[in-house]
Amino acid sequence: DGVDYEDAAVLDPICNAYKSIAQQSKFLPGQDVVVIGTGPLGLFSVQMARIMGAVNIVVVGLQEDVAVRFPVAKELGATA
């Protein structure tokens, strides 16, 4: 109903990232966050943590992700 398929496709991982950061982890602004994984959910979690006021956002992932996904995580707000 007015939402195109591209936007609808990312709603699930965005909502899961919000639930993980805001509800399940009991995160508070000013805290540090560790995100495990650099897939879509991990990258959305980086964005969510940044938006919600995380000080340091550390991303943990596979060696094969260093060349492509880690730079994206940095662009989205990861600090390490």
Write the layout of secondary structure elements.
Layout: H1 5-24, E1 33-36, H2 40-51, E2 57-60, H3 69-76
Describe this entry's structure for a reader:
The protein is mainly alpha-helical. The protein has one domain (5-76): Rossmann fold. Helices cover 50% and strands 10% of the residues. It is built from three helices and two strands; from the N terminus they run αβαβα. The protein has helices at 5-24, 40-51, 69-76, and strands at 33-36, 57-60. The protein has a two-stranded parallel ribbon. α2 runs parallel beside α3 (69-76). The longest helix has 20 residues, at 5-24. The radius of gyration is 13 Å and the shape is globular. The protein starts with a helix and ends with a helix.
Q: Brief description of this entry?
A:
The protein contains 3 helices and 2 strands. It has 80 residues and is mostly helical. It has one domain: Rossmann fold, CATH 3.40.50.720.
List keywords for this structure.
single chain; mainly alpha; two-stranded parallel ribbon; globular; zinc; NAD(P)-bd_dom_sf
Radius of gyration of CA atoms, rounded to a whole number: 13 Å
Biggest β-sheet: strands ordered side by side in the sheet: 1-2
In whole angstroms, how far apart are the ends? 40 Å
What kind of oligomer do you see?
single chain
Compute the number of structural domains.
1
Series of H and E elements: HEHEH
Taking all residues together, what is the mean pLDDT? Answer: 94
CATH class: Alpha Beta
Might you state the CATH topology name? Answer: Rossmann fold
Question: Which strand-content bin applies to the residues?
Answer: 5-15%
CATH superfamily: NAD(P)-binding Rossmann-like Domain
Please state the structural category.
mainly alpha
Number of strands: 2
Q: What share of the residues lie within helices?
A: 40-55%
Shape call: globular
Number of helices: 3
Q: Low-confidence segments, ≥5 residues, pLDDT <50?
A: none
Architecture (CATH level 2) name: 3-Layer(aba) Sandwich
Family: Belongs to the zinc-containing alcohol dehydrogenase family.
Keywords: Metal-binding, Oxidoreductase, Zinc
Cofactor: Zn(2+)
GO molecular function: metal ion binding; oxidoreductase activity
